[in-house]
Amino acid sequence: MFFKSMKTLRYLFAIAWAISLFSCEGQEEIGPRTNPRFSVASIQEISENGVQFGANIYEFGSDQVLEYGFVYSRNSVTPTLESDDYVSAAGKPDKTFSLTAKHSLALGATYYAAAFLKTDQGVVYSKSEKFVSQGSQGFLITAVEWPEKIYKDQRLIIRGQRLSKVPSNYTLSVDIYSLSFTLLDSNTISAELPSLLLTSTTGREKEVELKLSIAGREYRERKVLQFEDAQFTSQPTQKIDFDEEVIIRGDYLDQGAINLQYNSVGISNITARNKQELRFSPYLDKTFFEGDVASPDLKLTMRGVEYNLGKVFDLNPSRVTDSELILDGFKEVIRGGNFSNKESGERNQFIDESGKEVFLGQGGFYKDSLVLYPSDITFPAREMKVRVKNFGKFSNPITVKVNYPSIRVPVNWEDEGTFNAVQKGVIQRGDFGFTLTMDGILRHSLKETYRTALYDRLPTDFRIRNYSIFQATENFFIIGGGKDYGQAKGPVFVYSVNDRSWVNLGQFPEGIDSFQASYEVPDGLIFEQGLFIDYEGVGNVFNSQAWLYSFKTKSWTRLTDSALTRSNLTFAWNTQLFSISYMEDTGQYGLYRKVSPNSPWVLVKLVDQQLGYFMQGNPPIINGKAYLFSIYTSIKELDLTTFEMRDLRVGDFGYDRSMAFTQGKSVVLISPYNGFDIRPDLIKE
């Protein structure tokens, strides 16, 4: 026999006695016995309902017997009550006793069975006997206790009868998930519900199947499980910067994967998460798009359940530290805060007071500064008030002053047919400029848009001839004259900008075909430096004749001959007249002045030879300084008081198709494809 104490120590000395007794029944005992002696368990009957065991008591001994029975195991030849299944009865048995095991016996499995007696001093086991099971009646489930709602770290309690004590006899699952479990006692199983049952389920409920198998016997149960619903605490709208977090508070917020959507665009940038709090940075890792807004509708999807949270957060507008920015260098910086530092359709846009976007050469983008490289871009104006726009939000305004000597400005030509019109003279009226071209008269808006449109046509009975004049005075455009070979000379037309009308003056007097210069006097127009065109004789002859055409009498009157014969540019300033003219005796060009229409021309300065090729009559004049344009030289600044000149080296503008006007301190140059705002006062020597 085998012996084991209540403290799990076997009565080792009893083994020796048992062996001696079974081998030599007639041998005399040595001393009185305290523990019982009994036979090996016998297998009396095996059926599909279980196994009947039997044993004989040889001697009860002096220890009190509390319980008796049979223990059986598939895994050990020495089964014990601590780890194996058993069948038992309370009290002291008869000399011969038997019990039937009706559970936890798998069909066709080999088991080892031993009889046992439990005394007040311990447990005595017999030697085990081997048998092959034909099955058993199985277990009985009396209750399955599910959590009311499924969430994390929950357990399933299964109550029943005839449950096996051997964990290896069990398989337990819910759908495809195997469950780990604990045997609380001979009638109770506690199983841990798998986390994937929660996190991998979509929807608020799911029907599942519980399957319990013990020693080949199986129990199944179907159950519709209810899952805990995410709960959200009502919070005020959170005002955030681009790099700040949004916090969503509530309960049951950590149930598997979460999908966040802003205005139906999926975002995955959750930075922290637990049962009662969810944190994410809406803009930290997000790629921005045109459709993004500062306060989007937020939708959260958890386990396939959608929660429309509405407008949880609102982006703060960008902030600008300085109230004024002067652009005069290669690199400029706008300081502030909450600027966007991501590539996007809308990123740190500069918006002017009219709502239009202004490009200021944006370069580096940082949360506290914007780096600009503005020296070679197009500006709508020299001074503008702009705000930084991000996601529909505007910063406080900043005044931008552009102090580069020359800047590009936008141009807008309504009639593409006038793109290549060569200008022959300009007149300015406030914020509008007018240009005489061979295609008609153009009008230019000098405010912001610099829009150019065809304003009036040339006279219908006018055609261009050799040496036809295209000239401009302060108020009139003059065209006509000239003569083609074998043809009569053409009439002269005068256009009044004030009246918007053409007047036919007829032909030039006394056979003169054209004049080199013209200017206004109170009673009409004076034409100087006539030209006779001779195709067959000595050739063209320039002369010094001067003639007055009176608007009042509509007649020509010859005046004293002019001192000039070959002027290339004549213009008026205040009451004075100026002319740059070719001096035939020296082959040079000189600057001449008339202090009044009736006074003589006086040479005041020799000028650059290349200034003989001016393209614009009525040059722009600012504070007594005229700005002269030539095909071959840079812009010349002529001081009409001191007669000093300086070069304004600000680039090549294609002067033959450029129209120059004044706007405040600026000379505005308009050409078909570009416009320029030139500030002579900002040009260093």
TrEMBL record:
Coiled coil: none
Sorted UniProt keywords: Signal
InterPro entries reported for this sequence: Kelch-typ_b-propeller
Signal peptide annotation: 1-23
PROSITE patterns linked: PROKAR_LIPOPROTEIN
UniProt entry tagged with the keyword Oxidoreductase: no
Name this protein carries in UniProt: Galactose oxidase
